[in-house]
Each structure stands twice: as C-alpha cells, then as structure tokens.
Sequence to fold (472 residues):
Amino acid sequence: MIHFDNSYARLPQGFFTRTAPTPVRDPKLVALNLPLAARLGLDPAWLQSPEGLLMLAGNTLPEGAEPIAQAYAGHQFGGFSPQLGDGRAVLLGEVVAPDGARFDIQLKGSGPTPFSRRGDGRAWLGPVLREYLVSEFMAAFGVPTTRALAAVTTGEQVIRETLLPGAVLTRVASSHIRVGTFEFYAARGDRDRLRLLAEHVIARHYPDASGAADLLQRVVEAQAYTISCWMGLGFIHGVMNTDNMSVSGETIDYGPCAFMDGYRPDKVFSSIDAYGRYAWNEQPNIAVWNLAQLASCLVPLMGDSDEAVAEATRIVHSFPALYQREWLRRFAAKLGITSPRDTDRALIERLLGLMAEGQADFTRVFAGLSNGKARDEFLNRDSFDQWAVDWQARIKDLPDAAQVMARANPRRIPRNHRIEEAIAQARDSGDYSPFHLLDAALRDPFTDRPEWDKLALPPQPDEVVQRTFCGT
Ligand SMILES: Nc1ncnc2c1ncn2[C@@H]1O[C@H](COP(=O)(O)OP(=O)(O)OP(=O)(O)O)[C@@H](O)[C@H]1O
Ligand SMILES: [Mg+2]
Fold:
C-alpha cells in the first residue's frame, strides 16, 4: 500500500534502535493533509479508512515499515548533551513519491523509546496542532520545512502540569537528520559512522556534493536561505538547539515557535529562553554557531589537519554573506523589488527602524504596502510618508512591483493568539472548527476572504500571547 524504501534503517548498528510505536486507547482523526498525501503518492481513501487511522495512531504498522528511533546528540542552549535521540518519535520508514523524491514518515508523540530518559514519549494536543498549523503555513509560503500529514488524538491523557489530551502528529520530512546527529558520532570519536552518515546525507540531500567540505558548504547555503525566510516572516523558532537544526535545511521542531505581531527585533516568546539566546534578530548568529558545531564534526572527515580546520572555518564564515544576500532579496521583494541594489538595504532598514519605534505590526505593514494601509500601523506617520516618497521613487519604473509584493507578503500569519484559541477550543470543548478555519486560511496566505478577515488582525490587548511554553 505504501512504497517504503528504508535507507536509514539499512545503516549499520549504532544509528538507531528498532522501536515500535506504543498503541493508544481510542484514536480519532483530527486532521489529514490530503494534498500532502497526494504529493507522497499515498492513497487518500486508505488513509481515511479505519486501518489508515490505526497506522497514524501507531496502533498498527503498515507493510514495509521498519520503525526506528534515531540517535542524536545536541547543543541545547549552548551546553552539550551527548545522548538525546528520538525520545518520543518513531520513524516508520521512507516513502518514495511518484516523482522519486524520498520522504521520512515519522510519528511524533508515539510512546517511549530507549531514548526517552524520564519522558513519557508522548505529546499533548496543543503542540501537535501548533506544529500542524505552522509547518503547513510555512510550506504554503515556500519556506523549507518538515510537513504535517495528520494529527490524531489518542483517547489517553498526558501529564504536563495538568492532565491534557494526548495526540500524535504524523510528520513528513526529506529526512530527520540533524546537526546533532553528526555530533552524536563526533563526540564518540566514531569516525566510521561519521563517514557513513556524511555519505548517507550527501546521497540523500546533496548528491552532487564532492565530499565533507562540500557537504558543509551546502548545509550552510541551505540554512542561510531558510533563516532568511524566517526573518522575512517575523518567525521566531524559539529553540534553535543543534538537535533542532536539520541538515537538509528544513525548519524542524515547532515546539515553542511564534511569529511576532508588533515589530521588536529582540523579541523572544519561549519561556525557557531567559537570556534571549534565540531572539528573532539572533537567529542568523545562532545559525552560524550551530554550523560551527557541524564543521567541528566534519573536520575529521576533511583530513583533520590545520588546513581542514581553516577550510571548515572559511565555509562557516561564508554564511553571513550568503545570508545577507538572501535577506536583501527577500526584504527587497517585500517592497516590490526583484533585482535589489546595495542601496536598497538602507531603504529597508529605514522602514524597519520606523516600525521598531512604535512596534508596528510586522505582517500588516508589509501587506499594507500593497493597499495603502501600511501608514496606519505607524506611530510616526510623517516619517513613514517621507520614507514612502523614496520607496515610490525606487519602484515607479518597476512594472512587476505590485505582483512581487503580493507574493512576498502574506495576508496573514499563524498569529499566536489564534493558535492558542484553536488549541483551547479543541482541548476544552472538542471543537476543532477554529483549528480547521485557521488551517484553511493559512494554506492560502495570499487570498482574502471575508471569513478569514479576523484571522489577520493583531491581538487585542487582552489577547496578546507573551509567552510560549515548551511543555510539549
Ligand atoms: N515527552 C517526552 N518524552 C520523551 N522524550 C522527550 C519528550 N519530550 C522531548 N523529549 C526528548 O527531549 C529532547 C529534546 O526535545 P525537543 O523538544 O527538542 O524535541 P521534540 O519536540 O520532542 O522533537 P523534534 O525535535 O523531533 O521535533 C529530544 O531528544 C526529545 O526526543
Ligand atoms: Mg527537538
């Protein structure tokens, strides 16, 4: 039924443990992503059948699945944990889509594994719905990301600070290999497995890369692109530990993530990020820090010499220029400019500076440039008007400016208060209609519809979400 080809499970001992999901009491389908199912070549009717549901809940294994929990390590808030791994996720296997693309199918929240340490191996409904909504919005907007194929409730409760409904997310990714996966073997001095892992990642993600150095360069490029996408949306990942940084460049782990409403460059939401390590404007720096960890892992495969260190350093240091280029492209597009000049940087920064003064709403300012409503978002409207004169002068001869802006600026983002509202309704009343409304609106971020209007609004003072919690 599903065409599995499990290349990771064919790696030798030491990369994973074979672990089946733990069945749940009373699974119910909450959401099924039919367009993604089609993309993967999965049979939608089967997925919607009772057997499909049992697979999505982890109660039965589809033919060809070889469930494993993957080993990884990671730097968490700067400190190294040599042994993390999938503590609450199981990789069912890899499907090869009709076009030949390979995707991991993983259940997140599927019960304990040998990597669970003291955790219960479960997820509660809230983070599952958040990851579903946000990752699918990111995909709709073209940001590299893991995807959400399905969400099911388990009919069981999980204990966080209180009792909460349990859920399982079916996550799809081009792989779940993280910077922390490399760190796992590097920390153990296991050069053989490090080499096998590098070969696996090259074959899978960067087939024309010529070796470890080139692999590093590709990851640097992929991350520069992805982080620029985050910045252009006001997205704050919240927990950019190296175990949450994918070597494919896909955004992974939407635990405490959030989008900013009012523009504040040092914005932090996550309750556990007390020092703002993962603040919005720190994300490119943290990416470099994380990539330096990957570089350290790869040096032994690059000859382990002073030259190898110098080369790895040079590659990591290529990030800022690559990132700046992507940033300029992205923010210039938000102003309607496709072929930015260096002088456009000042124009963009002037606007951001004005936005910061009054914490103008990030999404509405850019969306409002298309319809003349941006001005209303500013504290100092005269300064905005002066800026707009220069901006208009810059774009007046660009015939496609309006279209470029329309594609670069979403009409709406997954606002925190709307996500919280959808979660609260689902949790407290079993009412998934706010979730489904939000899901539909976020999948179509360029279209206006009357029933979606309120989803674009910033929070009222009593709706503001100040903190997101990692109690996932
Ligand atoms: N409820 C839990 N039970 C067991 N292990 C857990 C649980 N929650 C988190 N972990 C483990 O703690 C580590 C860090 O968790 P983190 O929140 O970064 O990841 P995650 O959200 O579980 O998963 P992913 O990164 O795959 O999206 C990981 O090894 C994860 O498997
Ligand atoms: Mg994680």
In short: The mean pLDDT is 97. The chain has 16 helices and twelve strands. The pocket of adenosine-5'-triphosphate (ligand 1) is lined by residues 84-89, 115-116, 119-122, 239, 243-244, 252-253, 255, 472 (CB under 6 Å). Residues 8-173 form one domain.
